[in-house]
Amino acid sequence: MAAPPQLRALLQAVNTLLRKRRYHAALAMVKGFRNGAVYGTKIRAPHALVMTFLFRSGRSACTCCHVSCLPC
């Protein structure tokens, strides 16, 4: 099934806008924000949740060990 002409025209207008060099910096910022949000959701949030459950109850020695091993 073919796309309606209005949708085809909208897609063509968006693609034309995205190709313009003038908007490259703004689009790069949007892309960076989006990638940061995806990374934060997939990696950092679950890691923070697991670390909270593992090290929350008086295990400061484990926390210190974990913190000291992170830069390695």
Explain what the structure shows.
With 72 residues, the protein is an all-alpha fold. Helix content is 79%, strand content 0%. The protein contains 3 helices and no strands. It has helices spanning 5-19, 24-55, 60-69. The longest helix is centred in the middle third of the chain and has 32 residues, at 24-55. It is elongated, with a radius of gyration of 22 Å. The chain starts with a helix and ends with a helix. The model has no long low-confidence stretch (mean pLDDT 82).
In DSSP terms, counting alpha (H) and pi (I) runs of 4 or more, how many helices?
Answer: 3
Terminal CA distance: 55 Å
Mean pLDDT: 82
Strand content: under 5%
What summary fits the major beta sheet? Answer: none
- Rg over CA atoms, rounded to whole Å, is 22 Å
Could you spell the SSE succession in H and E letters? Answer: HHH
> Are there runs of 5+ residues with pLDDT below 50, and where?
none
Structural class call reads mainly alpha
Structure in a nutshell:
The protein has 72 residues and is mainly alpha-helical. Helices cover 79% and strands 0% of the residues.
Detail the topology: elements first, then pairings.
Layout: H1 5-19, H2 24-55, H3 60-69
Structural key phrases:
single chain; mainly alpha
